[in-house]
Amino acid sequence: MIDIETDGPADAGKTLTKAASSSSTTPSKSAAAPVAAAKSADNTVHNDKVLTTPAVRKIAKENNVNLSLVPGTGPKNRILKEDILNFVKDPSAAKSAAQSDSSSLSSSSSSSAVAAEDTRVPIRGVQRLMVKSMTASLAVPHLTYCEEIAFDAMKSLREELKHVFAKQHDVKLSYMPLLLKATSLALKQFPNLNATVNVDCTEMIYHANHNIGVAMDTPKGLIVPVVKAIQNKSILEIAQELQSLQKMANNGTLTEAHLSGGTFSLSNIGSIGGTYAVPVLVVPQVLIGAIGRLQVVPKYPHIKTSEDLSKLTAATPVPTTVMDVSWSADHRVVDGATVAKFSNLWKMYLEHPHLMIAELR
Ligand code: COA
User: Does residue 271 have its Cβ closer than 6 Å to ligand 1?
Assistant: First the structure.
């Protein structure tokens, strides 16, 4: 699992080192190019049933593309990012390329496409930045800590709020704004985790603002725009800001200001898949969380681990929605017990949303 801060020119990875040495977060630029517009033949979009990722759906929505017309080249015809981008650029070329792929596949006895020769691909742009930033991150000793959150209460809260947000404010409420708010409330009690550290690890800055970077899967690759001063914002304001950042990330219109100043990071890989992931720090920040996919599992909520299970064979499991989180910390300056206490508090807010609401401004 990797996280980078930005896109930019080929040498923009330097910003990471520069930022680390100044004990502040990484200033950076987005170089993602706007995606050319393309419309489906009948202008009607029916995208729900197609196998693809949230980022692809967003691009399709923003370009008014009917995903059922886009040839998918991934496993089980999953539509990949390059498929939608090719389609948006030139719908007829994308279709014929996919057709020739599938005909060469059907004429072959092999079950997967094999290139006739090796291909050399230069590492540029976002990928190049990822090389530099991840290399810098892995110079920092990481501690990873995982926890499971019972998520039914938060799921119900979101179900109720999402209709109000959509109807009254035209805002889509996903889980992220709730997770971001819970993070900010927990950080209030752990200011040493909303922090950055200088390059020789002799000084930390505990930041006043909770500026949380959100990892986004975009057409140009992974970028981490920052939702600023979350401690002062309502869940509605966070949702509005996140929606606007997501739109800009997909259009390639994020600026350096949107990508810089992060003091903490969250990555919701669960919107794509996965249960656990080991997140990599966005240096010089000292903690990052990765959220896994919500799943329903059987639980015995009223049975304590200290009980003698042999006496409880008749106990009935309850279907429970759970969400896993994996935290990675800079182990030079943050110990495991601190991460565990922070995670317990975060868990408490998410499992008991009324406690969270009690602290909202
Ligand atoms: N488990 C299950 N479903 C989830 C989920 C999770 N953890 N997180 C989101 N979803 C669902 C949402 O509820 C939504 O479905 P719905 O509209 O039916 O309710 C759907 O997935 C799409 O959500 P999305 O529009 O992506 O919003 P989001 O606020 O949850 O996520 C981003 C926003 C930017 C985080 C997400 O789009 C993204 O890019 N995630 C990938 C981040 C990444 O690549 N991290 C790896 C770094 S190495």
Answer: yes
